[in-house]
Design brief:
With 237 residues, the chain is α+β, with helices and mostly antiparallel strands. It contains five helices and 14 strands.
Length: 237
């Protein structure tokens, strides 16, 4: 009889493989704990994971009124996130500068909560590079897809402008409602020509900076955020 061959010792599993097994074994709740225990930046990784109902604490750095929306900047452990909220009394009470809020991946975009002040559902997103990294996205045949955007200028101040209209490539980010979306752009020299028009070419980049841009002869106008138009009494399009 031939001697029984000793089983070969398995190679140690990688951290990614262990994480994948943990997700399959105990679901999102355990995955969230795993992220919290292994990540260098807990806030960023939990936010990017999009795990439903897992809260992440952020400090409110600013909340600026942009027409019918609040432009909010959130800080947490080296991570800066930008979000847009309805400019309502309820949301202003939640997103008060120099307070701490809790972000939850609830619904389409998420929501903010603050103890004793209630909650506010997000109307829009900034930080598009981070958003691009959350979950599956559209598949494109071109390395830099291009389409035509049509829009109207609905708000402008010294810092940003809001353009409402049709932005076909927002679907590459998993964003729905491309036929009626508000794009947030800066009011600097890079967007001056775009703000004088109502039609422009639009580009999407699946990697690197400038995720979504509007193109003019003067260069690229970077889209800094996307907002879902709110249903206001008497407003139609």
């Amino acid at each position: 009889m031939l001697p029984m061959r000793r089983a070969r010792r398995a190679l140690p599993a990688s951290r990614a493989a262990r994480a994948a097994r943990a997700v399959r074994a105990c679901g999102w709740a355990c995955a969230a704990l795993l992220l919290a225990s292994t990540a260098c930046n807990v806030h960023r990784n939990l936010y990017l994971s999009g795990v439903p109902w897992v809260g992440v604490a952020f400090d409110v750095a600013r909340a600026d009124v942009r027409g019918r929306y609040l432009d909010v900047e959130l800080h947490g452990q080296g991570t800066t996130l930008r979000a847009f909220l309805p400019a309502s009394e309820e949301c202003a009470a939640v997103a008060t500068p120099e307070t701490t809020v809790r972000f939850e991946a609830a619904g389409a975009l998420g929501r903010l909560e603050r103890a004793g002040a209630g909650s506010c559902t997000l109307a829009g997103i900034g930080s598009l590079e981070d958003w691009r990294g959350r979950g599956p996205r559209g598949v494109t045949e071109s390395p830099v897809p291009r389409a035509q955007a049509e829009y109207d200028l609905v708000y402008r101040d010294a810092d940003v402008a809001l353009l409402r209209g049709r932005f076909p490539l927002v679907g590459e980010l998993g964003w729905t409602g491309a036929s009626d979306t508000i794009a947030v752009v800066p009011t600097d020299a890079s967007c001056a020509a775009i703000l004088e028009r109502d039609v422009a070419s639009m580009e999407y980049r699946p990697a690197g900076g400038n995720v979504l841009t509007l193109v003019s002869g003067d260069g690229l106008c970077r889209i800094e955020g996307l907002i879902r138009p709110l249903a206001w009494a008497g407003e139609s399009r």
